[in-house]
Each structure stands twice: as structure tokens, then as C-alpha cells.
Amino acid sequence: GPLGCGNINSRLIMRQVLDRRFRRLYYGNALSTEEVMVTVSGLYVHPVKSCAGISLKRAHVDDYGIVHDREWLIVDEHGKMLTQRVIPKLCLIGTSLEYDHLKLSAKGVSDFNVPFVRGRRDERMVQVWDWRGLAQDEGDDAARWLESVLHAPCRLARRRDKHDRRTAIGSPLGFADGFPFLVVSQAALDDFAAKAPAQAARFRPNIVVDGCAAYAEDTWSEMSAGNISLRGMKACSRCAIINVDQRTGRRGTRTLKALTAHRRNDQGKPIFGRNFIHHGSGDISLGDRVITYPR
């Protein structure tokens, strides 16, 4: 056959064998005649960091992850990011991706539209954790709208075309905390829901998968869905945002306390879900089969 095909086929066969062994490890020998299929059961995009997310049927993926995910960021008057850690009611700002604009909504005020087409805008220095860099300022009208909702001085910033933020391994990163994808299993959400409030929105995943054991995602070195391949990086350590009821904006204590008692990494930090980076662009849809490879 063509040069190299034998080696490629051998690697594929070995991965299939390992995949079957991994599934049996989690599901037992009952799978000897019928494999359990892992599928995409949830897709979410969060256009504005820490504001409400959007459930999708299909997601297009570019260099930064799901298109428009964490493309916008709310900052204070010094350019530092504002999140639900500081302002829990950010979750009450609704987002909607329309034909040619991002729509922001909140109770008691008119909707505000942010055009996708970039106009002539000033740039400002913004800070996300330790990273500082330039972003596009979306103007005074956007700032006034946000201030009317949050009752605090703030600006709306957008990722530039020449955005230069990177992950720890050098891949493109928008305004997400550390990686472009967060994957959680529905079984993990169901398991933890018996201990504390655990709606998916509290954990802000991009992909929810069904058909695997609870927390199986922690063991995946790679996965693919649709025509996108993802590489596992680390378990996602969690903060006080998971204490915020995403429907009311009220912050409690129960969820983080229960998770800290239930699942921690070697450094003692509570963990839930797994962070991934991706390769290339393409699409992921609800119902897509997920192929996984154990570490």
C-alpha cells in the first residue's frame, strides 16, 4: 500500500483496542457485545465573559474555540476584568447572537445591540488574570448600558483581530480563564446534583457529553467530536462562581463547599470538568459521537 499507511492503520487499530478496554473498565463486560456510545448532549457559548451563556444546536469552531465564545469582556475603569467572582449579578445579563449583532438584555432596561462588523473604535489596555493587552473598546453607549444594569463604572471590550493572548502551551486564547474548551459529563452533573445545586450553567461548560461514567472526562488525553479534535490539558479547578445561582444572581456557599469535600486535585483545589485545547476549525453538533482516548 501507500508509504506509511501500515503504521497509520496500526495506530488506529491500537487506539480502537485501547478505547474498547477503557470503556470496559468503566462499564464492565456487559459491553462485550454492544458498545456504549458517548455523544454530545450540550453545547454552550458565552459571548461575554461571566454573562449568561447560550445553548446551541451546532457550534462552529475557529482558532479561539467556539466562535464568539468569550469574545467580549467587561472591565472596570482600570481595565481589569469583572466577573461573577466580584459581581454575581453579571449572570443576569442575557446574550443572544443575532444575524449581524450581539444582543445584550437585562430586566428593566431596553436591549442593547453590539454590531459584529467592527467600526472605528478606540483601543484600551485590559487585564485578564496576569495577561495585559489591547482590546477594542465598544464605546460610551455600551458602557452606559452596562452601568445602568450593574451600577458600577465599567466598559465593554472586544477581542482584537490581532489578539495575542495564548494558553500555557502557546495556542490562541480569547478571554476564557485558561483554555478554549471546558468539557463535563452529564453523569458527573447528575452525580454531584445529589450533593449540592449543580446545574450545568453554574460550571459554564462548552461541551456536555452523555453516555460515559461520571467524571470519565478526567481520564481523557484526547477526544474528538464532529470534525474537531481536542487534547486534554488539566482538570478544571473551581472558584466561588459555582456558588452563584445563575437564575437569580444570588451567591450561596453550599456548592463550592460540597465540591471541596467531594473532589480535589493534588493541591487540594476543588475540581470539576476538564480543560481542552483544540486543533483546527470545523463544527460540532448535538448528537455527534464522541471518540475518547484515555491517558
Low-confidence stretches: 1-13, 26-34
Distance between the termini: 31 Å
Total helices: the number is 5
Overall pLDDT level:
90
As a percent range, the share of strand residues is: 25-35%
| Basic shape | globular
Per DSSP E runs of 2 or more residues, the count of β-strands stands at 18
Q: Biggest sheet: strands, sense, closure?
A: 8 strands, mixed
Specify the helix fraction band.
10-25%
Order of strands in the sheet with most strands:
2-1-13-12-16-15-14-18
Rg is 20 Å
| Pattern of helices and strands | HEEEEEEEEEEHEEHHEEEHEEE
**Oligomeric state as shown:** single chain
**Which structural class do the helices and strands define?**
alpha+beta
Please give a quick description of this structure:
With 295 residues, the protein is α+β, with helices and mostly antiparallel strands.
Q: Which helices and strands, and how do they pair?
A:
Elements lengths: L4 H23 L11 E7 L8 E2 L2 E5 L2 E2 L5 E4 L18 E4 L3 E5 L6 E4 L7 E6 L2 E7 L2 H11 L4 E4 L22 E5 H8 L6 H4 L3 E4 L9 E6 L2 E10 L16 H9 L8 E9 L2 E4 L4 E5 L1
Parallel strand pairs: 12-13
Antiparallel strand pairs: 1-2, 1-13, 3-4, 3-17, 5-11, 6-7, 7-8, 9-10, 10-11, 12-16, 14-15, 14-18, 15-16
Structural key phrases:
four-stranded antiparallel β-sheet, 295 residues, alpha+beta
Give a description of the structure:
The chain has 295 residues and is an alpha+beta fold. Helices cover 19% and strands 32% of the residues. It is built from five helices and 18 strands. The strands form four sheets. The protein has an eight-stranded mixed β-sheet with strand order 2-1-13-12-16-15-14-18. Strands 5-11-10-9 form a four-stranded antiparallel β-sheet. It starts with a helix and ends with a strand. The N terminus is likely disordered.
